[in-house]
Amino acid sequence: MDLHDVTERAVATGPVCDACLGRLVADRSFGLTNAERGKAMRVSFALATDDPYEPPTPEDCWVCEGECTRFEQFAERALAAMEGWEFRTYQVGTRVSPLLEENERFLREDAGLPEDAGEQLKSEFNREVGKRIGAATDAELDLERPDVLALIDLSTDDIDLQVNSAFVYGRYRKLERDIPQTKWPCSECGVSGMKRGQPCEACEGTGYRYGTSVEQLTAPVVLEAMNGEEAVFHGAGREDVDALMLDQGRPFVIEVKNPRRRLVDAASLEASINEFAEGRAEVEGLRLATHDMVERVKELDAEKTYRATVEFSDPVDDEAFQTALDDLRGATLEQRTPHRVDHRRADIVRTRTVYDIEGELEDDYHAVVELRGEGGLYVKELISSDDGRTDPSLAGLLGVDAEVTALDVLRVEGEDEPFERPEFFRDDASA
Length: 431
Prior knowledge:
Alpha-Beta Plaits, four-stranded mixed β-sheet, 12 helices, about 30% helix, about 25% strand, disordered C terminus
């Protein structure tokens, strides 16, 4: 159907504003607003029919009921709602009332157009309000996951500002033993710190099994720097509570919900965390990440390098020790879920590979072993056999009991390092 026929049918339905008229054929031309497009259609129709050009008052439009005159007003209200929130990307969403949706449908039917012709009112609102916000803030439009989303509800005349989380990626080192990665709630009192009206003896009234965690040594600093409401710690796996995490550290992401600040100074944030942790943990390589980094970190199937201090129940000679290490080097193990974790993990058999292993006896009863293994390898059980639940094992090959008395994670490595560094994550406070 040509534009002349569309215009004739549409204007015959009653007062239709230029924006609603132009929206009917928005998919046929580019570079104009719908209001400009509708005006051109009306002028062309008037010239072709020798009728006077008499555009209706926009507020009298029966289709949008004057809403198309309020783009500037909604943009100003959205900008007011965004005050106090730092953002670099944004999006606008619009809820159109059932009445206006029905009016649009009737107009297309009366104009002889299919229901999906042109552009929908909500799409025009998103674009027109959005471009005004962009011009006022220099922020970029992001249709996937923006920093902020201004949601316009034409039914209630409200604007709801939704603020998406910010994510900080880095690597941490844990420099003291008996510190878990995340908060460990007390199983006796359920975090309350109280039991039968008295301070819980198991956790000394703290509500947590351990006095602190890597999460508690890092996340509060990020939360304060970004002025958010809550911080959640996500790690790329975790080491045992009694193990150190050394060398390059373990990847992690801290998610900050409803952050008012995003343009943080990476170097200052690192320094603040390391000062706050007081030598118990430290971080490096902080940078702003995107939301998909959480899953990438959590799913990172990284190989790890460990150093274990081992104690034997009986004397071990060096030749037998080195032969056992040779047998384990490159071996694929069958590991049934260890006794120490079978209360919280499914009792299944996993296969894991020892990529490399070296060791040295300190005396007949003690050794230091360094090994590199597949992600998910239970190292303590590789040494002890866990009553035969890991096969082969160092203890099984030597025919003596063996126990890991100290374990250090030296490296956590993966083929795809899960981080990004957008240019707007500040390197210094003056950026």
